[in-house]
Amino acid sequence: MYSRRVVMLSVVTAAGLALSACSSLPEAGQPVYGEYACGQLDIAVSGKENSDLISVDYLDRRVLLKPKVAGSGALYVAPGDDQTRFWSKGEKATLTIQGQTYPECLQAGDLEMPFEARGNEPFWHATIEGDELLLTRPFEEQQTRRIPVELKTANRHGREFKATLDDLPITLTVARQLCEDSMSGAQYPAQVRLVVGNEEFTGCGGDRQRLFQGAVWVVEDLAGAGIIDRSRITIEFLEGNRLAGRASCNRYTGTYELRGEGVGIGPVASTRMACAPALMNQEDRFLTLLKQVTEVQIGRQGELLLSTPEGDTIRAFQSDHESP
Question: Nearest-CA neighbor of 221 among 300, 282, 291, 293?
Answer without folding.
Answer: 282
